[in-house]
Amino acid sequence: MAGDYTETQVIVVGAGPVGLLLAGELRLSGADVVVLEKLTAPTTESRASTLHARTMEILDSRGLLERLGDIPQETVGHFGGIGLDLGLPGPYPGQWKLPQTRLEEALEQWAVELGADVRRGHEVTALTGTGDAAVAEVRGPDGTTRSFRAAYLVGCDGENSAVRRLGGFDFPGTDAGRSLLRADVEGIDIPGRRFERLEGGLAIAARRPDGVTRVMVHEFGAGPADAAPTFEEIADAWKRITGEDIGGGTPLWVNSFDDASRQAADYRKGRLFLAGDAAHQQLPIGGQSLNLGLQDAFNLGWKLAATLAGRGGEALLDSYHRERHPVGQAVQSNVRTQALLLLAGHEVDALRDVLAELTDHEDVRTHLAGAVSGLDVRYEVGTGSGPLLGLRAPLRDAVGDETGDKGGTTTFELLRSGRGLLLLAPGDDARREDLRTVAAPWSDRVRTATAVVEDGVATTGALLVRPDGHVVWADGADRDDPAGDGALTGALERWFGSARPRDAVRPAAARALRVVPSTAAAEENRRSGMDRLTGRTALVTGSSRGMGRATARRLAQEGALVAVHCNSDEAAAREVVAEVERDGGRAFAIRGELGVDGDVTDLFGALEQGLLDRTGSTDLHILVNNAGVMGGVGAADVTPEQFDRIYAVNARAPFFLIQRALRNMPDGGRIINISSGLTRFANPDEIAYAMSKGALEQLALHFAKVLGPRRITINSVAPGITRNGNPVFDIPGAVEQMAALSAFNRVGEPEDVADVVVFLATDEARWITGSFVDATGGTLLG
Q1: How far apart are CA 701 and CA 716, in angstroms?
Q2: Residue 2: its pLDDT value, please?
Q3: Claim: this prediction has a pTM higher than 0.70
Q4: Distance of alpha carbon 500 from alpha carbon 495, whole angstroms
Q5: Are 542 and 590 contacting, i.e. CB atoms less than 8 angstroms apart?
Q6: End-to-end alpha-carbon separation of the chain, Å?
Q7: 269 in Cβ contact with 321 (< 8 Å)
Q8: Which helix (H) or strand (E) holds 609?
Q9: Which member of 19, 113, 305, 489 lies 3.0 to 4.6 Å from 31 by CB, making a disulfide possible if both were Cys?
Q10: Residues 530-559, buried b or exposed e (16+ Cβ, 10 A)?
């Protein structure tokens, strides 16, 4: 039946900000995800424009703020139209004004770069979520229907959610009693109005930097609209309330929203989940709806990914509803209050006056600001009574990386890998060492770092932080376990799974639901059950194209985590990473020019950081020296600069890469150098190149004796004429001539060489070292 479905691990329905953030979170942890969106193109309507402090922290902890550029900040927000200072301790006090379209664009770019498969024009028409999979019937842009199958499906498809309806989720609550008409209008010049309550109703007007004015209006006593309003209706209402005529403007967008308040009784039904407005409907005033939904996705993403990776179970998945449902209830309560204060008539004026007086009291202001900003969210995370348990971590604290990075960083940056964080306090070295020892079996899932002293004040004691930034253990917080070790172990097991080593990067349950297009069945069968390099890491230099690209993909197919290196073409390297991840493998891109001063140091700095983020270790098991440059000129025309460049890249860089790699390579590692058949086959136009490759081969011969006691093998692979993207391979006559040189009467393909390299990287090649492997297809036979 596999060929009857498009299979993945998670289906996300809805490509709005909530669905795209969820997709990125899943990909960050290696889960396969397909996003299905009914619309054929991203909307141009910015329904929301406000990000609150907690959401800004979330975006920063995934490195997304850099993509958004400068975002205007406003310290003063409102509660039901009553001005409220939203400033609270943290790096992002207040509210931040960003069009939803811009946020959506950045989130989609991030998710796609990580390997998410976003499919627009795909409408879910039927849904089942029982047994061992969720299956969605989907009508595509061409009108045909096909099936998508996944371990889990998440509805992020808004207040009219098809997933909620088709999945049979109860959605209790109250119907709308009032509505607010809204339009974005070009070509009008009216005074700004901030929640002005006039005699006949409420008026809001705000001019954007692009000259477009957003107007919102409500007539006191008016019920909800029966249908979508026209611009003429909005203009008439605006004139009745304010006396201003906006009818000559050009409407860019017209809609209304109401004060209906509903919440799904359950956020999870078996293999189906709801997030964002699919899970809760409320008046989207003050931006709380968008922020609430993004925070839903942030809570759910890492839990689904951990479960798919074999590090979580039903309890972890159930914690999504248990944690987020009460948060949704609390937000709906404050939004209903705000709706009353905003949209009710003058009978609530006295209530508004009292509330305005109360907000002058700091404890009231702080309470309301925490509710609006999302900074007051506290989850029930287990035993203990520490003041930070369940709250977000103190994310501004500077920290020093336990790997020896003395430059320091922030906990935002440490959380960007999607892993947990054990944050140790400075001081008591023995205690710190004890905690590191306890956490060591989880080092692939939890990164350890030490807080530094800021302004003479040390951070609070050791903290265990989930990938979503919430504290789940604090040293000394458990009265029954004052030493904290047992409680730390319990928290690690509860939130990060068993301490036993994982037997595979992709466990069997997850592997059964990989993205496998039916056209790739033969390739899947070839790979099935191999995974000979699971748990190992590899660096392939020059792997953004050609043989390096093929080698990186094959190593990943065998289970290795691969660092895809490029000299300058980062887009091509990211494309290789995306290909690897679509195949169910793991990879990351690093950039570094070879053959220049500092090349090896810079490259290994990026490599070690990438390995540490993904494995908790800087071990490198496999090094493939593939990067190289050719001359392409006769011996008489080679300049000293060209000669030096060829040797710097082809011989010097591999030597020092090997030298440096041996500091990271465990016993039993593998080094493969890509040489050339030109060391055995004359070509007068490539003398300098052939000389450099001959030098490279000497590395294998002589290093083999040195590395033998460590069971590290080192070998040279010599390709022949191999298709590499050169235009000459598009000329049939030239290809025919080149093919005649091979015993097989064809030119080589990058995969031909990649398979040889991968063999030498496996345990099957443990008895081969210091060798020259002819991978020319018989070209050297003469």
Answers
A1: 9
A2: 38
A3: no
A4: 14
A5: no
A6: 50
A7: no
A8: helix 599-615
A9: 305
A10: ebbbebbbbbbbbbbbbbbbbbbbbbbbbb
pLDDT of residue 4: 64
Closest listed residue to residue 137, CA positions, set 150, 151, 123: 123
Confirm if 492 and 446 have CB atoms less than 8 A apart.
yes
Tokens of 283: 């008046």
Closest CA relative to residue 295, chosen from 106, 56, 94, 78: 56
Question: Are 472 and 382 spatial neighbours (Cβ–Cβ below 8 Å)?
Answer: yes
- One-character DSSP codes across 665-731: PPTT-EEEEE--GGGTS--GGGHHHHHHHHHHHHHHHHHHHHHGGGT-EEEEEEE-SB--S-GGGG-
Q: Nearest-5° angle of CA 443, CA 446, CA 450? A: 100
Separation of alpha carbons 20 and 120, rounded Å:
12
Cα→Cα distances 56→71, 277, 294, 331, 366, Å: 10, 19, 10, 18, 18
* Of 734 and 417, more confident: 417
What does the CA dihedral 396, 402, 408, 412 come to, rounded to 10 degrees?
A: -30
* Residue 461, token pair as written in the block: 């004691």
Structure tokens at 703: 């290093």
Checking DSSP bridges between strand 446-451 and strand 420-424, what pairing results, if any? Answer: parallel
Query: Which domains does the chain carry?
Result: 2-173+263-373 (3.50.50.60), 177-258 (3.30.70.2450), 398-496 (3.40.30.120), 530-723+750-781 (3.40.50.720)
Distance CA 419, CA 29 (A): 8
| Whole-number Å distance between alpha carbons of 96 and 50 | 6
Element (H, E) at 301: helix 288-308
Half-sphere exposure of 533 (CA within 13 A, CB side): 29
Identity of residue 32:
D
* Six token digits for residue 604: 């290994």
Mean pLDDT of the chain: 87
- Phi, psi of 154, rounded to the nearest 5 degrees: -125, 125
Q: Which residue has the tokens 């336990």?
A: 402
Between 698 and 4, the more confident residue is 698
Size (the chain), residues: 782
In 3-state terms, the chain is what percent helix, strand and coil (to 5)?
40, 20, 40
Local structure of 47: helix, strand or coil: coil
Tell me the mean pLDDT in the region 276-283: 95
Q: Which of 284, 369, 370, 397 is nearest to 332 (CA)?
A: 284
Q: Are strands 145-150 and 5-7 parallel, antiparallel or unpaired?
A: parallel
- For residues 410 and 449, give the distance between their C-alpha atoms in angstroms, rounded to a whole number: 10
pLDDT at 1: 35
Q: Is the dihedral of CA 64, 66, 70, 74 positive or negative?
A: positive
Give strand ranges (E) for 270-397: 272-274, 280-281
Secondary element (H or E) of residue 89: none
Four-point Cα dihedral 149, 155, 157, 163, nearest 10: 80
Q: ∠ CA 418-30-569 to the nearest 5 degrees? A: 90
Nearest to 5 by CA among 134, 123, 171, 185: 134
Q: What is the SS3 assignment for 226?
A: coil
State how far the Cα of 619 lies from the Cα of 599, in Å rounded to an integer.
20
Does residue 755 sit in helix, strand or coil? helix
User: Tokens 């799904």 label which residue?
Assistant: 264
3-state secondary structure of 516: coil
> Pick from 216, 770, 778, 762: which is nearest to 530 by CA?
762
Angle (CA) 539 541 546, round 5°? 115
Q: How confident is the model at residue 535 (pLDDT cuts 50, 70, 90)?
A: confident
CA pair distance 655, 747, nearest whole angstrom = 30
Q: Tokens 């309330």 identify what position?
A: 241
* Residue 77 identity: G
- The answer on pLDDT for 284 being more than 90 is no
CA pair distance 167, 187, nearest whole angstrom:
45
